[in-house]
Amino acid sequence: MELSYAEKRFENALKSVARNLDIKEYVQNSKDLYPLFQRSAKRFVTGETREEGIAVGAQLSEKGYDISLEFIGENTMEREACRQAKDEFVTMMQACGHQNLRSRISFDLSHIGLSVDPELALEHLLEMAAEAERYDLSLMISMEESGKTDDILEVYKKAVTQYEHIGVTLQAQLHRTLDDLQELLTYPGAVRLVKGAYQEPEELHIPRSETLDERFMELVQLCIQADFPVSVASHDETIYQQLMKRGCFEHSYVEAELLYGIRPDVCRRLKEKGVPVRVYLTYGQEWYLYLVHRIAEYPPNIYAAITDMIEGVEDIPALY
Ligand code: FAD
């Protein structure tokens, strides 16, 4: 989807609001604004607590969807906070295990230590991988801005040689991804392919365009040629239609993955056609940034956000 000039300005303005910690703090401390924004966030975030995330996960799982679950957070700058985030992921896995929710656990490495020290991120990742193994769950590492790609892939490669149930996300928009994927296909693990959410320098990336869509599909096909597990993570129905035409979803290790609250209609249609669909759920108190990003990346979401503030959010799981 290429944004118009006005939408691009809106996206940039919202992203700068999202980065402004004073505004975030103001909203979070305002007894009027906080509940209002929280109503809009409810469309995209299951709630502030683990219990809410797991309850929505169980509902969607009943309907035949696979689940990814994330405790929202990124760029944690203190060791103790990284440890607390890792502990929350461990507790979440134990809760999923006890409730028989066969979820995938998704997270940013910068939430569990990468921004402090890559060794700390690796240590926490290995601990989480051991816990995931205990409950037969899998882990999926998100991909962050290009300045972190090398560190994320280094930590991933070290961990996946010990634990095969870990995957990593790659961004089709980065030119380097073609080479990164070829290398990762020689490792165990799994890959999630996304177009890429970060604004990157011009020379490093392919902007939203047909060229990017073609690259995205080329990467999916490379995984298939190597019989490599791949999650096609997009809300772009045209991409799904084209991949279906090319027979890509006839392989059991290829799935579609969409964020909670976004295009539940596409999720339903894909599932009806027999495509395995995974819904990515989030919970936690850091929902403000997540909400602003969902609106910035697709400006028409502002209509739903304002309607939800006024009327309260509809029953989102019922839309699936
Ligand atoms: P676009 O080209 O952006 O849009 C195509 C069409 O999809 C639009 O016309 C519209 O119909 C629909 N659409 C797109 N976004 C929305 C929306 N917010 N609301 C409603 N409709 C929409 N990015 C990273 O950089 N790192 C990650 O680790 C990462 N993990 C992700 C995990 C999952 C499961 C998903 C689905 C996305 C993830 N992303 C990640 C975000 C991704 O990179 C894209 O920025 C995002 O998915 C938008 O691109 P798109 O492929 O959906 O299509």
TrEMBL record:
<feature type="binding site">
    <location>
        <position position="143"/>
    </location>
    <ligand>
        <name>FAD</name>
    </ligand>
</feature>
<keyword id="KW-0560">Oxidoreductase</keyword>
<protein>
    <recommendedName>
        <fullName>proline dehydrogenase</fullName>
        <ecNumber>1.5.5.2</ecNumber>
    </recommendedName>
</protein>
<dbReference type="GO" id="GO:0004657">
    <property type="term" value="F:proline dehydrogenase activity"/>
</dbReference>
<dbReference type="InterPro" id="IPR008219">
    <property type="entry name" value="PRODH_bac_arc"/>
</dbReference>
<dbReference type="InterPro" id="IPR015659">
    <property type="entry name" value="Proline_oxidase"/>
</dbReference>
<dbReference type="GO" id="GO:0010133">
    <property type="term" value="P:L-proline catabolic process to L-glutamate"/>
</dbReference>
<dbReference type="InterPro" id="IPR002872">
    <property type="entry name" value="Proline_DH_dom"/>
</dbReference>
<feature type="binding site">
    <location>
        <begin position="234"/>
        <end position="235"/>
    </location>
    <ligand>
        <name>FAD</name>
    </ligand>
</feature>
<feature type="binding site">
    <location>
        <begin position="195"/>
        <end position="197"/>
    </location>
    <ligand>
        <name>FAD</name>
    </ligand>
</feature>
<keyword id="KW-0642">Proline metabolism</keyword>
<dbReference type="InterPro" id="IPR029041">
    <property type="entry name" value="FAD-linked_oxidoreductase-like"/>
</dbReference>
<dbReference type="Pfam" id="PF01619">
    <property type="entry name" value="Pro_dh"/>
</dbReference>
<keyword id="KW-0285">Flavoprotein</keyword>
<comment type="pathway">
    <text>Amino-acid degradation; L-proline degradation into L-glutamate; L-glutamate from L-proline: step 1/2.</text>
</comment>
<feature type="domain" description="Proline dehydrogenase">
    <location>
        <begin position="58"/>
        <end position="297"/>
    </location>
</feature>
<feature type="binding site">
    <location>
        <position position="171"/>
    </location>
    <ligand>
        <name>FAD</name>
    </ligand>
</feature>
<keyword id="KW-0274">FAD</keyword>
<dbReference type="GO" id="GO:0000166">
    <property type="term" value="F:nucleotide binding"/>
</dbReference>
<keyword id="KW-0547">Nucleotide-binding</keyword>
